[in-house]
Amino acid sequence: MDRQSTKEKPTGKLDSIRHSLGFRTILIGFLALLMLVPLFMAKEVVSDRTFYYRTAIASVAETWGKEQVIVGPVLVVPYTEHIISMDTETDEKGETRTVSRDIFNDKTMVMLPKELKVDAEIIEKHRKRGIYDALVYQSEVELSGHFDFTLLPSKSSKKNQMNWKDAWIAVGISDTKSIDETRPLRWGAGSNTPLKPGTLLPELLPSGFHASMKDLNTDLTLAKFSIKFSVNGSEGFSFSPTGETTTANFHSGWPHPSFTGDIPPTQTDVAANGFDATWQIPNIARNHPQTWLLGKEKHDLYALKSGVKLFSPVSLYAKIERAVKYGALFIGLTFLTFFIFEITQKTRFHVIQYGLIGLALSMFYIILLSLAEQIAFHMAYLYAATATVSVITLYTISILKSFGRVMLILFFLSGLYALLYLILQMEDYAMLAGAGTMMIVVMVLMFATRNLESDT
Asked: What is the pTM of this model?
């Protein structure tokens, strides 16, 4: 481990090769590649913790509520279609006569709202599962609008008999066990009816709730409705534009929305204290009609939907995974820096010393991960970087015996970790910042080696 001057004259051919710059370069390059092994092991630890985190988040979502999709409301009206059939019959004497027959067909009409308004207040919540924090939400939802009763079969023929006592309104919700609170359906000027479990439409709306039309006033020109409920969920919240015209207004205090779905919002306002988003969607954007007969036609009300995800720009584990990706670069640049010290300052490091410095650099990511799971990421990064830089600096003091040279290494490592922190905080410009950092480092190294002699 003793330093030795690079000016010592080799005593033999093997000694000459061992002290040559080319051999030294290959040896240090091989050591740098060998350091990828502990770096890979650190990456595996990060991957395992990421898996445990995602498992914990999925477990929280299973009990609190999954991603919610709201569909409806849908008005379902059974009716009896009365048809008079006129047939011509010929008797045994050859005389013909016209015979009328009454035919009654039981049918069920599905009707979508003429106008639908979806108002949602999405309130962020945090739930702990062990050391992991899960971002979830509670949403206060109101569905309002009106149905167009002029589309009912009774309007086209007075002989059609509407069976209102068996009619119902259904609303689809993807995860019904997470419904927190409901209020009665408000109908017309003041009548209301309680909500009941299930949609009674297993193929159209597999899960949700419904309200009976039995006690509601159906002699209305404008059949207005209002449905309010509270639902828990995680990750995202979406709606299906079932109205002939659908307007949706979302409000939340979460500052990082990611608008998803088939149709983007027409207006958004995203600020540090939350976001507001508005959708205006006409019925021509979808592929199903305003009314159809149940059992005769099949339509997918979930085919077209829009909404938002509560997006975390750079999560804890994503930051650490990105940091590990720069590990090979860190080890390579650090080894290269020490190697330049060798050839410029005529000081030689032992291969074991290179290996121990590489291990210290690899340990940074384990320290960062273990601390970041307990405290804020910026503090964890500060402690992990300080510990790593301090250990390497103290180690090089005992090797170089020069305060000035050690200060150069201290400033280099500190600057490297500071730049890595800035890159990790970026999202859209991380690659640009990384490329710029690499170019600056190369320029500095080129400046430091500009006076190297060819026979060194």
From this structure: 0.69
- Provide the residue ranges of all domains of the chain, joining segments of one domain with +: 13-55+317-448, 66-313
Side-chain-facing half-sphere of 274: CA atoms under 13 Å: 10
CA angle 71, 75, 79 (to 5 degrees): 150
Quick one: tokens of 274?
A: 């939350």
Highest mean pLDDT pick, 115-124, 154-163, 363-372, 414-423: 115-124
Mapping DSSP onto H, E and C, the string for 232-246 reads: EEECEEEEECCCCEE
User: From CA 261, how far away is CA 266, in angstroms rounded?
Assistant: 13
In words, the CATH class of domain 66-313 is mainly beta
| Phi-psi group of 422: left, alpha or beta (phi > 0 → left; psi -120 to 50 → alpha; rest → beta) | alpha
Which two tokens mark 287? 């592929």
> What phi and psi values does residue 403 have, to the nearest 5 degrees?
-65, -40
User: Does residue 4 carry a pLDDT above 50?
Assistant: no
Question: Please, which residues have CB within 8 angstroms of residue 410's CB and are 6 or more apart in sequence?
Answer: 389, 393
Q: What percent of the chain has pLDDT over 70?
A: 79
How far is C-alpha 313 from the chain's CA centre?
9
For the beta carbon of residue 201, count every other beta carbon within 10 angstroms.
Answer: 20
Which one of 47-61, 150-164, 237-251 scores highest in mean pLDDT?
Answer: 237-251
